[in-house]
Amino acid sequence: MQLAAGPLTDRFGRKSLLIVDAAIYAVGAILSAVAVNTEVLLVARTLIGLAVGADSAIATAYIAEFAPRSRRGALMIMQQWMITVGILVSYIVAVVTFKIAPSEATGVDWRIILGIGALPAVIALALRTRMPESPRWLMINKRYADTRQALAMLGMDVTEKQVRDTAEQIAETERQLQRQTLWTAGVKRALWVVCGFFVFQQITGINVPFYYGPQLLGGYLQEGKSAVDAAVAGVMAAGILGVVNVVATFFAFRYIDKIGRRRLAIGGFLCMAVSILVAALGVANLTGVPRVWVVMIGFSLFITAFAIGVGGTGWLIQGEVFPTAVRGRAAAACASVDWLANFVIIQWFPTMNDAFGLAWVMVLFAALSLLAVWFVARFLPETKGMALEDVTDVFERQATAKRAPG
């Protein structure tokens, strides 16, 4: 869906696809709640996955094209922050539902947990119909009157002549970058750099605590002996990490435009390596309460480092490093790589855990985090405070320098 969303959003606009995504998610959540068999549930969850995947490709492009350069990082990290809030709310809903009606864990409880997702989707659908289309997309499609109206919704009073002049400047910049093709050497370089960043974002293990946290950590918090008690304890453990994720992402939102993308990413990956090694030492050498504390602290610091330096940064650079004409398609390709890497590491984790043990898998994640530090330091330029056209030009210059003789 991400790959399809790219050309569709470049053709029909960011707003249209965001509205469709919200509608698909709402339908998927409602179907999940009323599913009569496994097949219907799989269809419903697939619809939700398609909507989430497409949104992850389109939303960053939309925000990047709206945001002023001095606040672009903060506004795009805010999207990641809201995602972490949503994850935390889902944990809270699950715990509350199981606590209120533990006897219905295999009955109505799971339907409520899955179906309640339709509520934010319907709210998003209503709000997205009222938001303006991306001014940059409108200008590149020569819809100058619509651009003026979109900017007016943001409190910016401009004339249609000013819009035309700005549109011509943007078009001229992109014509210079396009040369013989939209997919210039700089765009291709930006594409593989962002894709590489996304791969490291996933293979360093950030989603393991969230996907497998209930199984890995639930036993430490379990009070009763029933399956429901185990489920509640597991979700509570993941919820604690969710709180850490929300708080840490707030700091990324505050400092991404002050410190910069590159420095935060390097620091984030470096701290991830150190903190996951702390957790590995706890798993390998401790027992009882000390083991619980060390592992939880290690995981919490790991998530903190990711949230501040890595989590939102990937989605931020995905939205800002491509020219407007191909931003949707390029962002969609990057999002597809991110979700594919997520799928691979999550599928392989149980096998690696069984073969090497949790502590050694954590050591592997630390080594990959250090490799990510090298990757960012070597290939990712700093882009804070730059206009989107200037960001694209940075990658063009890098690509040109790489091809130059000597």
Word description of this protein:
By secondary structure, the protein is mainly alpha-helical. Helix 1 crosses helix 3, helix 10 packs antiparallel against helix 14 and helix 12 crosses helix 14. It has a single domain, classed as MFS general substrate transporter like domains (Growth Hormone, Chain: A, Up-down Bundle), CATH 1.20.1250.20.
- Average pLDDT, to the nearest integer? 86
Give the low-confidence spans: none
The quaternary structure here is single chain
Portion in beta strands: under 5%
Overall, the morphology is globular
Q: Structural class of the helices, strands and pairings?
A: mainly alpha
Percent helix range:
over 70%
Tally of individual domains: 1
Rg computed from alpha carbons, rounded to a whole number of angstroms = 22 Å
Largest sheet: none
List the helices and strands and how they pair.
Elements: H1 2-12, H2 14-34, H3 38-66, H4 72-100, H5 108-115, H6 118-128, H7 135-140, H8 144-153, H9 160-178, H10 185-203, H11 207-221, H12 227-259, H13 261-285, H14 288-320, H15 324-356, H16 358-379, H17 388-403
Helix pairs in contact: 1-2, 1-3, 1-15, 2-3, 2-5, 2-6, 3-4, 3-14, 3-15, 4-5, 4-12, 4-14, 8-9, 9-17, 10-14, 10-15, 10-16, 10-17, 11-12, 12-13, 12-14, 13-14, 13-16, 14-15, 15-16
Give the tags.
406 residues; mainly alpha; Growth Hormone, Chain: A; 0% strand
What's the short version?
This protein is an all-alpha fold and 406 residues long.
